[in-house]
Prior knowledge:
Blueprint: E1 4-5, H1 12-23, H2 42-54, H3 58-65, E2 70-76, E3 82-90, E4 98-103, H4 116-121, E5 131-136, H5 154-167, E6 173-177, H6 180-191, E7 196-201, H7 216-224, H8 229-244, H9 247-254, H10 256-265, H11 267-280, H12 289-300, H13 311-317, H14 326-329, E8 334-343, H15 353-356, E9 360-367, H16 375-378, H17 380-391
Parallel strand pairs: 4-5, 4-6, 6-7, 7-8, 8-9
Antiparallel strand pairs: 1-2, 2-3, 3-5
Helix pairs in contact: 1-2, 5-6, 9-13, 10-11, 11-12
Amino acid sequence: xxxxxxxxxxxxxxxxxxxxxxxxxxxxxxxxxxxxxxxxxxxxxxxxxxxxxxxxxxxxxxxxxxxxxxxxxxxxxxxxxxxxxxxxxxxxxxxxxxxxxxxxxxxxxxxxxxxxxxxxxxxxxxxxxxxxxxxxxxxxxxxxxxxxxxxxxxxxxxxxxxxxxxxxxxxxxxxxxxxxxxxxxxxxxxxxxxxxxxxxxxxxxxxxxxxxxxxxxxxxxxxxxxxxxxxxxxxxxxxxxxxxxxxxxxxxxxxxxxxxxxxxxxxxxxxxxxxxxxxxxxxxxxxxxxxxxxxxxxxxxxxxxxxxxxxxxxxxxxxxxxxxxxxxxxxxxxxxxxxxxxxxxxxxxxxxxxxxxxxxxxxxxxxxxxxxxxxxxxxxxxxxxxxxxxxxxxxxxxxxxxxxxxxxx
Length: 409
């Protein structure tokens, strides 16, 4: 299958069925004084469902989505069926633009790249570096197809993304990712170091502080350098999430199929499940009802089904007997690729710089005053600033892609 232009077009019958389900929604009761600490509040759910049923205009959202340069092509991971992969592809007019793969996570989607595109498109190749941006819907997400076979783990997600970049003619490239994008892009860096030259991450996940055996110099630096106020606050935020916010993670890692029945049959359940994360994982980001319902609608109308995206949690944590445990391996040192890390204070894991430095050849770390888990949506300007600092002239990863340093020749 060649690369084809793509436009999102949900059928009228699908929208009618959705409205019927919304009309028959039944709500639970709620304890007096219940707030976000117990989950998505009843008042918010009543408001959002009423608007989804009678006010929200999916066709308007669809028209906005279809302003993005979207495409579809078949990509096959070894041992699995070929999948039609949906992706956004914004090409720069600058011949030396840097190819950049953007990888989303859960409960995000390709929509997370939307605010980055206009900011990166102004890169003129003279004063600021230019980028070609590729942002796929991961397999099982958005408008990409999903596999029907077990064992589709992090290596396969990485393989699909790498082969997509190769198919588009990008023999060498760099990446940006958070959430599952952290794991997918790090897997690409580990498995395809001749092509993937650098990673930029907006989260860091490690096995803990540096040890003397694995990182002796970092270990000494860690012992001698007190944590900053930002780092202490980050550790507190991380501990809070581990104590109060991991219920979803345990369920999706262990019994995704059981949860799938609820999320596939009930738009009410899907909305509550995702909206809780949009609220809890951001830094007071002012979500509009239209934004929330557009994000959730992409899951509801997704090609593989609204619950297919849960499977990455199970497959990543249950590798096949002949597969390495990449979920564990990818939180350890990776050689060959240069790494930049942006820390955001209200992310769900915010680690000290010495911990993050154990991930590999970390050439850039920035600590931002604001922002949470969905950095590209909350503060796209900060990610763009990081990308320009890392890959622009004078940056630690400048010129890492042969023949594509982001500037006119």
